[in-house]
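Task card 7
Instruction: Convert sequence to C-alpha coordinates.
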Amino acid sequence: MEEERPSPGRWLGSAGLIGGVPLLLLALLGLSGQAEADVVLFCLALTAAAALLLSWFWLRDLSRLARSLRHAAEGGMPAPRSEAEASHRGLAIPILSEVSEGVTRLIGHLAERQAMVERLRRSDAAILESLPDPLLVLGADRAPLRANAAARALFAAPAAESGPLAGDAAALLRHPKLAGAVDRALAEGEGQSTDITLPVPVPRELAVQVIPLDPPLIDGGRLVVLLADRTRERAVERMRADFVANASHELRTPLASLMGFIETLRGPAKDDPEAQARFLGIMAEQSERMRRLIEDLLGLSRIELAEHQAPTGRVALAALARAETEAMAPILDSRAVTLRLDLDETVEAAPADAGQLAQVLRNLLENAVKHGGQACHITLAVSRAEAPRPGALLSVTDDGPGIAREHIPRLTERFYRVDKARSRSAGGTGLGLAIVKHIVNRHRGQLLIESQEGEGATFRVWLPSG
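Output:
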Protein backbone atom coordinates (compact mmCIF):
# COMPACT_ATOMS: atom_id res chain seq x y z
CA MET A 1 0.00 0.00 0.00
CA GLU A 2 1.44 3.41 -0.99
CA GLU A 3 1.91 6.02 1.67
CA GLU A 4 -0.87 8.59 1.68
CA ARG A 5 0.60 11.99 0.79
CA PRO A 6 -0.86 15.33 1.96
CA SER A 7 -2.27 17.55 -0.76
CA PRO A 8 -0.15 20.66 -1.64
CA GLY A 9 -2.83 23.04 -0.43
CA ARG A 10 -3.14 21.39 2.96
CA TRP A 11 0.66 21.09 3.22
CA LEU A 12 1.29 24.78 2.53
CA GLY A 13 -1.60 25.82 4.75
CA SER A 14 -0.27 23.75 7.66
CA ALA A 15 3.26 25.07 7.06
CA GLY A 16 1.93 28.61 7.17
CA LEU A 17 0.10 27.86 10.39
CA ILE A 18 3.26 26.43 11.99
CA GLY A 19 5.83 28.96 10.70
CA GLY A 20 3.67 32.03 10.14
CA VAL A 21 4.40 33.82 13.43
CA PRO A 22 8.20 33.22 13.41
CA LEU A 23 8.42 34.29 9.76
CA LEU A 24 6.43 37.47 10.48
CA LEU A 25 8.67 38.36 13.44
CA LEU A 26 11.84 37.78 11.37
CA ALA A 27 10.47 39.94 8.56
CA LEU A 28 9.68 42.78 11.01
CA LEU A 29 13.13 42.42 12.51
CA GLY A 30 14.78 42.76 9.08
CA LEU A 31 12.65 45.75 8.07
CA SER A 32 13.40 47.60 11.28
CA GLY A 33 17.15 47.35 10.55
CA GLN A 34 17.98 45.74 13.86
CA ALA A 35 19.62 42.77 12.10
CA GLU A 36 21.67 42.34 8.98
CA ALA A 37 19.76 41.48 5.85
CA ASP A 38 21.83 38.38 5.08
CA VAL A 39 21.18 36.94 8.53
CA VAL A 40 17.46 37.72 8.32
CA LEU A 41 17.16 36.06 4.89
CA PHE A 42 19.02 32.98 6.13
CA CYS A 43 16.74 32.72 9.17
CA LEU A 44 13.67 33.20 7.01
CA ALA A 45 14.75 30.38 4.65
CA LEU A 46 15.61 28.09 7.55
CA THR A 47 12.30 28.75 9.33
CA ALA A 48 10.27 28.19 6.14
CA ALA A 49 12.07 24.91 5.44
CA ALA A 50 11.55 23.76 9.02
CA ALA A 51 7.85 24.70 8.86
CA LEU A 52 7.43 22.84 5.57
CA LEU A 53 9.22 19.75 6.88
CA LEU A 54 7.34 19.75 10.21
CA SER A 55 4.07 20.29 8.38
CA TRP A 56 4.82 17.33 6.10
CA PHE A 57 5.45 14.91 8.98
CA TRP A 58 2.55 16.32 10.98
CA LEU A 59 0.03 15.85 8.15
CA ARG A 60 1.43 12.43 7.30
CA ASP A 61 1.04 11.12 10.86
CA LEU A 62 -2.40 12.69 11.18
CA SER A 63 -3.40 10.97 7.92
CA ARG A 64 -2.27 7.61 9.31
CA LEU A 65 -4.26 8.24 12.48
CA ALA A 66 -7.35 9.26 10.46
CA ARG A 67 -7.02 6.18 8.28
CA SER A 68 -6.81 3.90 11.33
CA LEU A 69 -9.87 5.58 12.84
CA ARG A 70 -11.78 5.13 9.59
CA HIS A 71 -11.00 1.40 9.64
CA ALA A 72 -12.15 1.22 13.26
CA ALA A 73 -15.40 3.01 12.43
CA GLU A 74 -16.00 0.59 9.56
CA GLY A 75 -15.38 -2.40 11.86
CA GLY A 76 -12.25 -3.52 10.01
CA MET A 77 -8.77 -4.49 11.05
CA PRO A 78 -6.09 -1.74 11.16
CA ALA A 79 -4.49 -0.90 7.83
CA PRO A 80 -1.17 -2.65 7.26
CA ARG A 81 1.91 -0.43 7.56
CA SER A 82 3.50 0.32 4.20
CA GLU A 83 7.23 0.06 3.52
CA ALA A 84 7.45 3.84 3.21
CA GLU A 85 5.81 4.29 6.59
CA ALA A 86 8.19 1.79 8.17
CA SER A 87 11.28 3.43 6.61
CA HIS A 88 10.23 6.93 7.76
CA ARG A 89 9.21 5.90 11.25
CA GLY A 90 12.28 7.51 12.73
CA LEU A 91 11.41 10.82 11.03
CA ALA A 92 7.90 11.00 12.50
CA ILE A 93 6.73 13.43 15.13
CA PRO A 94 7.13 11.38 18.36
CA ILE A 95 3.82 12.23 20.04
CA LEU A 96 1.72 11.78 16.90
CA SER A 97 3.56 8.58 16.02
CA GLU A 98 2.90 7.14 19.49
CA VAL A 99 -0.78 8.12 19.32
CA SER A 100 -1.13 6.60 15.86
CA GLU A 101 0.53 3.36 16.88
CA GLY A 102 -1.53 3.21 20.09
CA VAL A 103 -4.74 3.67 18.13
CA THR A 104 -3.62 0.97 15.69
CA ARG A 105 -2.96 -1.47 18.53
CA LEU A 106 -6.30 -0.57 20.15
CA ILE A 107 -8.12 -1.18 16.89
CA GLY A 108 -6.37 -4.53 16.53
CA HIS A 109 -7.41 -5.58 20.05
CA LEU A 110 -11.00 -4.43 19.44
CA ALA A 111 -11.13 -6.31 16.13
CA GLU A 112 -9.84 -9.48 17.81
CA ARG A 113 -12.37 -9.08 20.61
CA GLN A 114 -15.16 -8.51 18.09
CA ALA A 115 -14.13 -11.64 16.19
CA MET A 116 -14.10 -13.61 19.45
CA VAL A 117 -17.57 -12.28 20.37
CA GLU A 118 -18.84 -13.24 16.91
CA ARG A 119 -17.43 -16.76 17.31
CA LEU A 120 -19.10 -17.06 20.72
CA ARG A 121 -22.37 -15.77 19.28
CA ARG A 122 -22.25 -18.37 16.50
CA SER A 123 -21.43 -21.07 19.07
CA ASP A 124 -24.39 -20.00 21.23
CA ALA A 125 -26.67 -19.99 18.19
CA ALA A 126 -25.45 -23.48 17.22
CA ILE A 127 -26.15 -24.75 20.74
CA LEU A 128 -29.66 -23.25 20.72
CA GLU A 129 -30.34 -24.74 17.28
CA SER A 130 -29.32 -28.21 18.46
CA LEU A 131 -31.50 -28.21 21.58
CA PRO A 132 -34.19 -30.91 21.26
CA ASP A 133 -36.86 -28.79 22.97
CA PRO A 134 -38.49 -25.78 21.27
CA LEU A 135 -37.15 -22.42 22.46
CA LEU A 136 -38.34 -18.86 21.79
CA VAL A 137 -36.66 -15.55 22.66
CA LEU A 138 -39.11 -12.71 23.33
CA GLY A 139 -38.54 -8.98 23.42
CA ALA A 140 -39.88 -6.56 26.01
CA ASP A 141 -43.03 -6.18 23.89
CA ARG A 142 -43.55 -9.99 24.10
CA ALA A 143 -42.95 -10.38 20.37
CA PRO A 144 -40.86 -13.42 19.29
CA LEU A 145 -37.35 -12.39 18.18
CA ARG A 146 -35.69 -15.77 17.69
CA ALA A 147 -36.62 -19.44 17.56
CA ASN A 148 -34.54 -22.60 17.32
CA ALA A 149 -35.05 -25.45 14.85
CA ALA A 150 -37.30 -27.42 17.22
CA ALA A 151 -39.60 -24.40 17.65
CA ARG A 152 -39.79 -23.83 13.89
CA ALA A 153 -40.69 -27.51 13.43
CA LEU A 154 -43.34 -27.24 16.16
CA PHE A 155 -44.94 -24.27 14.46
CA ALA A 156 -44.32 -25.56 10.91
CA ALA A 157 -42.16 -22.54 10.10
CA PRO A 158 -39.42 -22.48 7.41
CA ALA A 159 -36.22 -24.08 8.66
CA ALA A 160 -33.87 -21.76 6.76
CA GLU A 161 -33.32 -19.20 9.47
CA SER A 162 -34.01 -18.62 13.14
CA GLY A 163 -35.94 -15.39 12.73
CA PRO A 164 -39.18 -14.29 14.37
CA LEU A 165 -42.24 -16.48 14.02
CA ALA A 166 -45.87 -15.64 13.37
CA GLY A 167 -49.12 -17.53 13.01
CA ASP A 168 -49.17 -20.51 15.38
CA ALA A 169 -46.41 -18.98 17.56
CA ALA A 170 -48.40 -15.77 17.98
CA ALA A 171 -51.48 -17.81 18.87
CA LEU A 172 -49.44 -19.73 21.44
CA LEU A 173 -48.21 -16.51 23.06
CA ARG A 174 -51.82 -15.33 23.38
CA HIS A 175 -52.73 -18.43 25.37
CA PRO A 176 -54.05 -17.17 28.74
CA LYS A 177 -51.78 -19.39 30.86
CA LEU A 178 -48.64 -18.57 28.87
CA ALA A 179 -49.48 -14.85 28.72
CA GLY A 180 -49.93 -14.86 32.50
CA ALA A 181 -46.58 -16.61 33.02
CA VAL A 182 -44.87 -14.04 30.75
CA ASP A 183 -46.45 -11.13 32.67
CA ARG A 184 -45.36 -12.58 36.03
CA ALA A 185 -41.81 -13.22 34.78
CA LEU A 186 -41.46 -9.61 33.60
CA ALA A 187 -43.01 -8.17 36.76
CA GLU A 188 -41.22 -10.36 39.33
CA GLY A 189 -37.96 -11.04 37.50
CA GLU A 190 -38.21 -14.76 38.34
CA GLY A 191 -38.75 -17.86 36.22
CA GLN A 192 -42.32 -19.14 35.81
CA SER A 193 -43.71 -22.56 34.84
CA THR A 194 -47.09 -23.65 33.50
CA ASP A 195 -48.79 -26.41 31.48
CA ILE A 196 -50.89 -25.58 28.44
CA THR A 197 -52.94 -27.51 25.90
CA LEU A 198 -53.11 -26.52 22.22
CA PRO A 199 -56.28 -27.92 20.62
CA VAL A 200 -55.37 -27.37 16.94
CA PRO A 201 -54.34 -28.63 14.44
CA VAL A 202 -54.20 -31.68 16.72
CA PRO A 203 -54.31 -31.70 20.54
CA ARG A 204 -50.85 -31.02 21.94
CA GLU A 205 -49.80 -30.72 25.58
CA LEU A 206 -46.82 -28.54 26.46
CA ALA A 207 -44.89 -27.84 29.66
CA VAL A 208 -43.67 -24.23 29.51
CA GLN A 209 -40.86 -22.44 31.36
CA VAL A 210 -40.52 -18.64 31.07
CA ILE A 211 -37.05 -17.36 32.11
CA PRO A 212 -36.35 -13.59 32.36
CA LEU A 213 -32.97 -12.30 31.14
CA ASP A 214 -31.13 -9.62 33.12
CA PRO A 215 -29.34 -7.95 31.46
CA PRO A 216 -31.21 -8.31 28.14
CA LEU A 217 -29.58 -9.89 25.10
CA ILE A 218 -27.89 -7.70 22.54
CA ASP A 219 -30.89 -8.03 20.19
CA GLY A 220 -33.30 -6.88 22.90
CA GLY A 221 -34.32 -10.34 24.10
CA ARG A 222 -35.86 -10.15 27.59
CA LEU A 223 -37.41 -13.59 28.00
CA VAL A 224 -36.60 -17.18 27.06
CA VAL A 225 -39.64 -19.44 26.62
CA LEU A 226 -38.71 -23.12 26.78
CA LEU A 227 -41.37 -25.56 25.56
CA ALA A 228 -41.37 -29.27 26.36
CA ASP A 229 -43.80 -31.39 24.35
CA ARG A 230 -45.46 -33.78 26.78
CA THR A 231 -48.09 -35.01 24.31
CA ARG A 232 -46.54 -38.44 23.85
CA GLU A 233 -46.06 -39.08 27.58
CA ARG A 234 -49.63 -38.03 28.42
CA ALA A 235 -50.94 -40.07 25.48
CA VAL A 236 -49.12 -43.14 26.80
CA GLU A 237 -50.76 -42.64 30.19
CA ARG A 238 -54.22 -42.26 28.65
CA MET A 239 -53.58 -45.15 26.26
CA ARG A 240 -52.89 -47.54 29.12
CA ALA A 241 -55.98 -46.46 31.02
CA ASP A 242 -58.20 -46.49 27.91
CA PHE A 243 -56.90 -49.85 26.76
CA VAL A 244 -57.66 -51.48 30.11
CA ALA A 245 -61.12 -49.86 30.29
CA ASN A 246 -62.06 -50.63 26.68
CA ALA A 247 -60.66 -54.15 26.68
CA SER A 248 -62.35 -55.06 29.96
CA HIS A 249 -65.68 -53.69 28.70
CA GLU A 250 -65.69 -55.11 25.18
CA LEU A 251 -64.08 -58.46 25.98
CA ARG A 252 -66.52 -59.24 28.78
CA THR A 253 -69.27 -60.54 26.49
CA PRO A 254 -67.18 -62.85 24.23
CA LEU A 255 -65.27 -64.15 27.28
CA ALA A 256 -68.53 -64.93 29.06
CA SER A 257 -69.74 -66.76 25.93
CA LEU A 258 -66.53 -68.78 25.72
CA MET A 259 -66.69 -69.73 29.38
CA GLY A 260 -70.34 -70.78 29.00
CA PHE A 261 -69.64 -72.93 25.95
CA ILE A 262 -66.61 -74.54 27.62
CA GLU A 263 -68.76 -75.38 30.63
CA THR A 264 -71.43 -76.86 28.33
CA LEU A 265 -68.89 -78.94 26.42
CA ARG A 266 -67.56 -80.30 29.68
CA GLY A 267 -71.06 -81.13 30.92
CA PRO A 268 -74.33 -81.65 28.97
CA ALA A 269 -72.67 -81.69 25.52
CA LYS A 270 -69.80 -83.88 26.56
CA ASP A 271 -70.96 -86.80 24.42
CA ASP A 272 -72.94 -84.87 21.79
CA PRO A 273 -70.81 -84.52 18.59
CA GLU A 274 -73.38 -82.33 16.84
CA ALA A 275 -73.57 -79.86 19.75
CA GLN A 276 -69.82 -79.90 20.07
CA ALA A 277 -69.34 -78.94 16.43
CA ARG A 278 -71.89 -76.12 16.70
CA PHE A 279 -70.45 -74.75 19.95
CA LEU A 280 -66.86 -74.96 18.72
CA GLY A 281 -67.87 -72.95 15.64
CA ILE A 282 -69.39 -70.25 17.85
CA MET A 283 -66.31 -70.28 20.08
CA ALA A 284 -64.08 -69.82 17.04
CA GLU A 285 -66.17 -66.82 15.97
CA GLN A 286 -65.94 -65.26 19.45
CA SER A 287 -62.19 -65.87 19.59
CA GLU A 288 -61.76 -64.22 16.20
CA ARG A 289 -63.85 -61.30 17.39
CA MET A 290 -61.59 -60.87 20.44
CA ARG A 291 -58.48 -61.06 18.25
CA ARG A 292 -59.81 -58.35 15.93
CA LEU A 293 -60.83 -56.23 18.89
CA ILE A 294 -57.39 -56.41 20.53
CA GLU A 295 -55.65 -55.70 17.21
CA ASP A 296 -57.86 -52.66 16.58
CA LEU A 297 -57.33 -51.38 20.12
CA LEU A 298 -53.56 -51.73 19.82
CA GLY A 299 -53.60 -50.13 16.36
CA LEU A 300 -55.71 -47.23 17.59
CA SER A 301 -53.38 -46.70 20.55
CA ARG A 302 -50.33 -46.60 18.27
CA ILE A 303 -52.04 -44.08 15.98
CA GLU A 304 -53.05 -41.84 18.89
CA LEU A 305 -49.50 -42.00 20.25
CA ALA A 306 -48.07 -40.41 17.08
CA GLU A 307 -51.07 -38.28 16.15
CA HIS A 308 -49.33 -35.00 17.07
CA GLN A 309 -46.43 -35.76 14.69
CA ALA A 310 -47.26 -35.01 11.06
CA PRO A 311 -46.21 -37.72 8.55
CA THR A 312 -43.66 -37.32 5.76
CA GLY A 313 -43.64 -38.47 2.14
CA ARG A 314 -45.99 -38.40 -0.83
CA VAL A 315 -48.66 -40.97 -1.74
CA ALA A 316 -50.26 -41.53 -5.16
CA LEU A 317 -53.85 -42.10 -4.07
CA ALA A 318 -55.11 -43.77 -7.26
CA ALA A 319 -52.46 -46.50 -7.10
CA LEU A 320 -53.12 -46.95 -3.39
CA ALA A 321 -56.87 -47.28 -3.97
CA ARG A 322 -56.36 -49.82 -6.75
CA ALA A 323 -54.06 -51.95 -4.58
CA GLU A 324 -56.52 -51.96 -1.66
CA THR A 325 -59.49 -52.93 -3.80
CA GLU A 326 -57.52 -55.81 -5.30
CA ALA A 327 -56.61 -57.01 -1.80
CA MET A 328 -60.27 -56.85 -0.76
CA ALA A 329 -61.57 -58.67 -3.86
CA PRO A 330 -62.43 -61.91 -1.95
CA ILE A 331 -64.54 -60.00 0.59
CA LEU A 332 -66.31 -58.05 -2.14
CA ASP A 333 -67.03 -61.21 -4.14
CA SER A 334 -68.39 -63.04 -1.08
CA ARG A 335 -70.94 -60.25 -0.57
CA ALA A 336 -71.69 -59.87 -4.30
CA VAL A 337 -70.66 -56.21 -4.03
CA THR A 338 -70.39 -54.12 -7.18
CA LEU A 339 -67.45 -51.73 -6.88
CA ARG A 340 -66.97 -48.78 -9.24
CA LEU A 341 -63.67 -46.90 -9.33
CA ASP A 342 -63.42 -43.25 -10.31
CA LEU A 343 -59.73 -42.43 -9.95
CA ASP A 344 -57.73 -39.36 -10.93
CA GLU A 345 -54.23 -40.73 -11.55
CA THR A 346 -52.55 -37.37 -10.95
CA VAL A 347 -53.74 -36.79 -7.39
CA GLU A 348 -51.21 -37.12 -4.57
CA ALA A 349 -51.42 -36.59 -0.83
CA ALA A 350 -48.48 -34.87 0.89
CA PRO A 351 -47.29 -35.10 3.54
CA ALA A 352 -48.73 -38.58 3.93
CA ASP A 353 -48.10 -42.07 5.29
CA ALA A 354 -48.95 -44.74 2.69
CA GLY A 355 -49.57 -47.48 5.27
CA GLN A 356 -52.00 -45.39 7.31
CA LEU A 357 -53.89 -44.10 4.26
CA ALA A 358 -54.22 -47.71 3.09
CA GLN A 359 -55.82 -48.48 6.45
CA VAL A 360 -58.22 -45.56 5.99
CA LEU A 361 -59.31 -46.93 2.60
CA ARG A 362 -59.61 -50.45 3.95
CA ASN A 363 -61.70 -49.40 6.95
CA LEU A 364 -64.02 -47.24 4.85
CA LEU A 365 -64.52 -50.02 2.29
CA GLU A 366 -65.13 -52.63 5.00
CA ASN A 367 -67.59 -50.27 6.67
CA ALA A 368 -69.47 -49.81 3.37
CA VAL A 369 -69.50 -53.57 2.71
CA LYS A 370 -70.73 -54.47 6.20
CA HIS A 371 -73.43 -51.84 6.43
CA GLY A 372 -74.36 -51.48 2.76
CA GLY A 373 -75.96 -54.91 2.74
CA GLN A 374 -75.75 -57.89 0.40
CA ALA A 375 -75.17 -57.06 -3.30
CA CYS A 376 -74.77 -53.34 -2.61
CA HIS A 377 -73.11 -50.87 -4.98
CA ILE A 378 -70.05 -48.99 -3.78
CA THR A 379 -68.18 -46.15 -5.49
CA LEU A 380 -64.58 -45.37 -4.58
CA ALA A 381 -63.39 -42.02 -5.96
CA VAL A 382 -60.09 -40.13 -5.89
CA SER A 383 -60.27 -36.54 -7.09
CA ARG A 384 -58.68 -33.13 -6.74
CA ALA A 385 -60.37 -30.74 -4.32
CA GLU A 386 -60.41 -27.03 -5.14
CA ALA A 387 -62.89 -25.58 -2.63
CA PRO A 388 -62.97 -24.66 0.17
CA ARG A 389 -59.26 -25.60 0.19
CA PRO A 390 -57.05 -27.12 -2.50
CA GLY A 391 -56.06 -30.69 -1.75
CA ALA A 392 -56.86 -34.36 -2.42
CA LEU A 393 -60.24 -35.96 -1.88
CA LEU A 394 -61.04 -39.62 -1.15
CA SER A 395 -64.69 -40.68 -1.08
CA VAL A 396 -66.51 -43.97 -0.49
CA THR A 397 -70.24 -44.08 -1.30
CA ASP A 398 -72.68 -46.96 -0.75
CA ASP A 399 -76.38 -47.40 -1.55
CA GLY A 400 -77.22 -49.07 1.77
CA PRO A 401 -79.95 -48.16 4.27
CA GLY A 402 -78.20 -44.94 5.28
CA ILE A 403 -77.68 -43.39 8.69
CA ALA A 404 -80.09 -41.28 10.71
CA ARG A 405 -78.96 -37.69 11.20
CA GLU A 406 -78.69 -37.94 15.00
CA HIS A 407 -76.11 -40.73 14.75
CA ILE A 408 -73.67 -39.01 12.38
CA PRO A 409 -71.82 -36.81 14.95
CA ARG A 410 -71.04 -39.89 17.09
CA LEU A 411 -69.94 -42.33 14.38
CA THR A 412 -66.22 -41.80 15.06
CA GLU A 413 -66.52 -42.51 18.81
CA ARG A 414 -64.96 -45.71 20.09
CA PHE A 415 -67.40 -48.66 20.05
CA TYR A 416 -70.31 -46.50 18.91
CA ARG A 417 -72.65 -48.55 16.75
CA VAL A 418 -75.84 -47.41 15.04
CA ASP A 419 -77.20 -50.96 15.07
CA LYS A 420 -75.28 -52.93 17.69
CA ALA A 421 -76.74 -56.33 16.79
CA ARG A 422 -76.10 -55.96 13.07
CA SER A 423 -72.62 -54.54 13.62
CA ARG A 424 -71.54 -57.42 15.84
CA SER A 425 -73.06 -60.02 13.55
CA ALA A 426 -71.13 -58.46 10.66
CA GLY A 427 -67.88 -58.81 12.61
CA GLY A 428 -67.36 -55.12 13.42
CA THR A 429 -65.41 -53.99 16.47
CA GLY A 430 -66.80 -50.44 16.57
CA LEU A 431 -63.30 -48.99 16.16
CA GLY A 432 -62.95 -48.68 12.38
CA LEU A 433 -64.17 -45.10 12.03
CA ALA A 434 -62.35 -44.03 15.21
CA ILE A 435 -59.13 -45.25 13.59
CA VAL A 436 -60.00 -43.37 10.41
CA LYS A 437 -60.62 -40.16 12.36
CA HIS A 438 -57.27 -40.28 14.18
CA ILE A 439 -55.30 -41.10 11.03
CA VAL A 440 -56.97 -38.21 9.21
CA ASN A 441 -56.17 -35.92 12.15
CA ARG A 442 -52.52 -36.94 12.00
CA HIS A 443 -52.48 -36.04 8.29
CA ARG A 444 -54.03 -32.63 9.14
CA GLY A 445 -57.02 -33.63 7.03
CA GLN A 446 -60.78 -33.68 7.52
CA LEU A 447 -63.42 -36.44 7.57
CA LEU A 448 -66.91 -35.57 6.30
CA ILE A 449 -69.90 -37.91 6.59
CA GLU A 450 -73.08 -37.38 4.57
CA SER A 451 -76.09 -39.67 4.79
CA GLN A 452 -79.86 -39.87 4.91
CA GLU A 453 -81.97 -42.82 5.88
CA GLY A 454 -82.78 -44.96 2.88
CA GLU A 455 -80.34 -43.15 0.57
CA GLY A 456 -76.95 -44.67 1.46
CA ALA A 457 -73.92 -42.90 2.92
CA THR A 458 -70.84 -41.07 1.66
CA PHE A 459 -67.59 -40.80 3.61
CA ARG A 460 -65.22 -38.12 2.28
CA VAL A 461 -61.62 -37.61 3.41
CA TRP A 462 -59.88 -34.34 2.54
CA LEU A 463 -56.08 -34.49 2.62
CA PRO A 464 -53.42 -31.84 1.97
CA SER A 465 -51.62 -32.29 -1.33
CA GLY A 466 -48.46 -30.35 -0.59
